[in-house]
Design goal:
Elements: E1 2-10, E2 18-20, E3 26-27, E4 36-44, E5 47-54, H1 61-73, E6 82-86, E7 92-93, H2 106-125, E8 128-138, E9 144-145, E10 147-150, E11 155-157, E12 166-169, E13 176-184, E14 187-195, H3 210-223, E15 228-233, E16 239-240, H4 253-271, E17 275-277, E18 282-290, H5 298-311, H6 316-320, H7 326-329, H8 332-347, E19 355-363, E20 367-371, E21 375-376, H9 378-386, E22 392-396, E23 405-406, H10 409-414, H11 431-443
Parallel strand pairs: 5-6, 14-15, 20-22, 21-23
Antiparallel strand pairs: 1-4, 1-8, 2-3, 2-7, 4-5, 8-13, 8-17, 9-16, 10-11, 10-12, 13-14, 18-19, 19-20
């Protein structure tokens, strides 16, 4: 038998605080729907752990260390054993530096820290007997590999809809949706869903939790009461929602609602099949490791310097239209942005040793959850799940840290997409095998 407690707090920023997710900040002009921090605390035989999820783009090691310190200060002794993760919404505020000197609002960070302490504290105080159920669904129609082999022999990210030069996707998707349901007092109180897709469907300047928030609302509407839904984003660094075989507009709030409803349907269609888990113990394991930054070659540096000299100043229109599709579209602002990032890799290098953490939580012998920092490609998560001894395994990307995309070495050799481009903080191209090794080791302890 386990004990379970849950609480949440509203972390919607005030109007005007810049939104994170693209190459330049955009001050928000309002709200589609609220952002939340959600805290689930579990206890078994005196061992406590928790999962804290944020409707934010990312939470790096510096930020979650701040949360741990604040939690310990109020007596949450197991703060080091909490898994912190973000849903990666691109319509939430900055809480850490994504591209350098980003506009993190100090007052918002103070409020956010207090909300984390409040949510975890309330969840801890509400611990009561509960049952854990596990299940599995899948969805093959809402996520797509966003890197494509092109007719020129190269690979390109987001090449544009109906592009006649597309040959085929570089890889596949992870359609599996492992989920857990917590029952208390005869009702499902929480659903934890592990879904591989990018959380970037809206593209405007309004605050939103994107499709995870809409998924939760649809689940609640369908079940008829306010069951809470926590989305653990699975590895998705090379995945998004764009179907390039159509000209359907997929950058708007309506698309977030459509995708949220689709994933809600996938969850609810299999919720009745969830099996009870006999949790006789909870185990938590963590491992720290160095995640060095990539060092650009002389050729990469010289080429980028040349691009910067050739482009010069860019127009205001180029600076405004700077989404991830800008590379394929030939947007000069985006081209200059990435060239500058390569130059900064050498001229403004990361000087401190970067130490990251991965955490694994084991619920008996049925469910294992392992975190991966940053935005790993799906291949990393699939490798860990394949080697897992648990019948149900979740891999939580953007967990315990954030520092860019992590592809396999061959993805960097092919290049082409913005995920593989150098920056001052982009990881070494051989980091993925290490993360796979650590993930497999943690899930098998």
């Amino acid at each position: 038998m386990i004990r379970f407690g849950y609480a949440k707090e509203d972390i919607t920023p005030r109007r005007g605080i810049p939104l994170c997710g693209y190459f330049t900040p955009r001050p928000n002009v309002g709200m589609h729907d609220p952002l939340q921090v959600k805290a689930a605390v579990f206890e078994c035989n005196g061992v406590k752990t928790g999962i804290v999820s944020f409707d934010l783009c990312e939470v790096d090691r510096t930020v979650f260390t701040r949360f741990i310190t604040a939690l310990k200060a109020v007596g949450i002794s197991y703060a080091d054993d909490i898994l912190f993760t973000a849903t990666h919404t691109h319509t939430g505020p900055y809480v850490c530096n994504l591209f350098g000197d980003d506009p993190v609002d100090d007052n918002y960070m103070t409020e956010l820290t207090a909300k984390v302490v409040s949510a975890v504290g309330k969840a801890d105080m509400s611990l009561a007997d509960a049952e854990l159920f596990v299940g599995r669904s899948e969805c093959t129609t809402l996520a797509f590999n966003r890197r494509f082999w092109m007719k020129d022999g190269g690979v390109l990210t987001n090449p544009g809809k109906l592009n006649p030069n597309i040959v085929k996707p570089e890889g596949g998707i992870d359609a599996e949706i492992p989920f857990a349901a917590v029952k208390q007092d005869g009702l499902v109180r929480l659903i934890i869903a592990n879904i591989s897709n990018h959380t970037d469907t809206i593209g405007d300047e309004m605050v939103s939790a994107d499709w995870p928030g809409r998924m939760e609302r649809e689940v609640q509407n369908r079940l008829g009461y306010d069951v809470q839904v926590m989305t653990l984003i699975a590895p998705q660094g090379n995945i998004n929602h764009f179907n390039v075989e159509t000209d359907f507009d997929q950058t708007n709030y309506a698309e977030a609602c459509r995708i949220g409803k689709g994933y809600a349907e996938a969850l609810l269609s299999m919720l009745y099949t969830a099996k009870p888990v006999d949790v006789d113990e909870i185990k938590i394991f963590s491992e720290e490791f160095e995640a060095p930054a990539y060092k650009v070659t002389d050729a990469e540096y010289a080429e980028s310097k040349k691009i910067l000299d050739e482009i010069g100043e860019v127009s205001m229109q180029d600076a405004k239209d700077n989404t991830s599709e800008g590379i394929a579209a030939g947007n000069l602002f985006v081209k200059k942005f990435f060239a500058q990032r390569v130059v900064d890799n050498r001229d403004k290098p990361m000087t401190e040793k970067r130490i990251e953490r991965m955490t694994s939580i084991h619920f008996g012998k049925a469910l294992g959850i392992v975190s991966m920092p940053a935005e790993p490609f799906i291949e990393l998560g699939l490798a860990v799940k394949k080697a897992s001894p648990f019948p149900f395994t979740m891999v939580a990307a953007l967990g315990q840290g954030a520092f860019g995309y992590i592809g396999l070495p061959e993805h960097y050799e092919r290049g082409g997409g913005y995920e593989t481009r150098p920056s001052p903080t982009a990881p070494d191209h051989n980091l993925a095998p290490k993360l796979i090794e650590i993930g497999i080791r943690l899930i098998n302890k």
